[in-house]
Design goal:
Layout (H helix, E strand, L loop, with lengths): L10 H14 L5 E5 L1 H4 L5 H10 L3 E6 L4 H11 L4 E4 L5 H7 L3 E2 L8 H12 L3 H10 L1 H7 L6 H9 L17 H13 L15
Parallel strand pairs: 1-2, 2-3, 3-4
Length: 204
């Protein structure tokens, strides 16, 4: 459940917002979705901890913040049993080291096998191999955010024949010609992490 956008509520307002949903849906597990870059409000670790203590059905949080200290404080204040996912691509692997349970990955739309393998390697204790995949995914992460997500991902998947259209709803716009050129360059750099049919886009 995403934090309310535009209104910029206080932490008390955020608490009341989630408390209402949690109390009215006691059998529904709730995952708080913190994404301040899109909502203009950041739910504080203290507020998540307060919700966690009050409502047993507030089970986790998807953290889409680049403030890695924030991740650590959530886990510290809420307890290790809270489920924390990363929504920031380049913090997916580091979060596992703190005790996060996984990640909600946009780049997995382009390289699902590599993203899944990175997770599996880490959980199997193969940290160095997991780190190699983490760094191999960097160019594909840059593809995703060449322009506003999800337009770049949809354009790539359409080019690969996996989507019938790269259409995005207004006010988003399709990827510009300059963006397409940049994406193509990045796909070539990130080719080792791709699998068919996306590898056909970077064939010599």
């Amino acid at each position: 459940m995403i934090t309310p956008y535009y209104a910029r509520p206080t932490q008390e307002g955020l608490f009341q917002w989630y408390a209402t949903v949690a109390s009215e849906n006691p059998d529904l597990p709730i995952v708080v979705y913190n994404v301040p870059s899109r909502t203009a409000v950041d739910i504080a670790p203290e507020t998540i901890a307060r919700l966690r203590r009050r409502f047993g059905n507030v089970v986790g949080v998807k953290e889409t913040t680049r403030d890695f200290e924030h991740f650590s404080r959530v886990l510290h204040q809420c307890g290790r049993d809270i489920l924390v996912w990363s929504g920031i691509e380049l913090l997916c692997l580091p979060l596992l080291a703190l005790g996060g349970v996984g990640f909600v990955s946009a780049v997995a739309n382009l390289a699902p096998a590599a993203v899944a393998q990175m997770f599996d390697l880490w959980t199997a204790g193969e940290q160095e191999k997991a780190r190699e995949l983490h760094f191999a995914l960097h160019p594909l992460v840059d593809v995703i955010f060449t322009e506003t997500n999800p337009a770049p991902a949809k354009w790539v998947l359409q080019q690969a024949g996996l989507l019938g259209s790269a259409h995005v709803r207004p006010p988003l716009a399709g990827v510009s010609e300059a963006g397409q050129r940049r994406i193509t360059e990045l796909l070539h750099v990130g080719a080792p992490a791709l699998t068919p049919p996306l590898t056909d886009l970077v064939a010599p």
